[in-house]
Write a structure and sequence with these properties.
The protein has one domain: Hypothetical protein af1432. Helices cover 61% and strands 0% of the residues. α2 packs across α5. The longest helix is centred in the N-terminal third of the chain and has 22 residues. The protein is globular. The mean pLDDT is 89.
């Protein structure tokens, strides 16, 4: 059986997202939704409600008074952090496990996903046309989901990966993945997103985040926000596995975003500040 067929089997065996998580992902992809609607779905799940309240009253968010209702908790911590919680709970250990094929330690991918999500959201705020920052956050968080399936297969082909990466004409790590396995993390991530019935906007961001100029025009701003977020998060240091320096910024982003060096520096500071605020909760609980 080919590596590509083995990967297809593994995707088919992945656990499905909970119905509550899927409903929240579909709802928050709609630009006309409200936080009250988000809270209404959360309230129907006791476990999720408990964790949203726990996060709202954690050290990073506490404001000296106890928050006792889900509605107030959602308003307090914001949609982005709600979705971090939902995705973290729904994917279980998938985003926390070590990734031998990328030389990533346990927890490294999850930390990187959080930083990339923050970066994508902050980039989206600077879009020249209306773009949902919280949708960019969610798309950024799920962007590299394909790595969890690709990792073991790449680890078995480590010598070929090193050979491909040492070839001056190899291109990106994504191209090396495709050459060795017949597929890549973007295709695999898209298949996972399809299996989980994620919104088309998120599927598209996963598929084209490393090749944003190929994205459909109507979703190009979202895809570019994820693309830039990925590069910025790697700049900070997370995601620093064997592929860390194998990506370049597509300069067509200027069509959609006003980002000079000062803006990029501010985004990097925002990433570090917010990550520091949430890491003790999301990386230890």
């Amino acid at each position: 059986m080919s590596v590509s067929d083995l990967i297809k089997q593994e995707i088919a065996s992945l656990p499905m997202l909970s119905e509550v998580a899927r409903k929240l992902l579909m709802l928050t992809a709609d630009e006309d939704h409200s936080l009250a609607e988000v809270a209404d779905i959360i309230e129907k799940d006791v476990y999720l409600s408990t964790n949203v309240l726990k996060l709202a009253n954690s050290a990073g968010f506490a404001r000296g008074h106890q928050i006792e209702t889900v509605n107030r908790a959602v308003m307090h911590i914001g949609e982005s952090n709600v979705m971090s919680l939902v995705i973290g709970m729904s994917t279980g250990e998938l985003l926390h496990d070590p990734l031998a094929g990328y030389a990533q330690q346990q927890g490294s991918l999850w930390a990187f996903c959080l930083q990339e999500a923050i970066a994508a959201r902050e980039v989206a705020k600077r879009c020249k046309i209306p773009l949902q920052p919280d949708l960019a956050y969610t798309a950024g968080m799920l962007f590299n989901i394909g790595m969890v399936v690709m990792s073991d297969h790449l680890a078995k082909e480590s010598e070929q990966i090193l050979k491909a990466m040492n070839d001056p004409d190899h291109g990106s790590f994504i191209e090396a993945e495709r050459k060795i396995t017949g597929t890549d993390r973007d295709e695999v991530g898209t298949r996972i997103a399809e299996r989980w019935r994620l919104p088309k906007s998120i599927q598209t961001a996963i598929r084209f985040g490393h090749s944003p100029s190929e994205a459909p025009e109507e979703l190009a701003p979202l895809v570019y926000s994820v693309h830039i977020g990925d590069i910025l998060a790697r700049t900070i240091g997370y995601g620093g596995g064997v592929d860390a320096l194998s990506y370049s910024l597509d300069d067509q982003y200027h069509r959609y975003f006003d980002l000079d060096n000062t803006a990029l520096e501010l985004i990097l500071l925002d990433i570090l500040e917010e990550f520091t605020k949430i890491e003790s909760y999301f990386l230890t609980d």
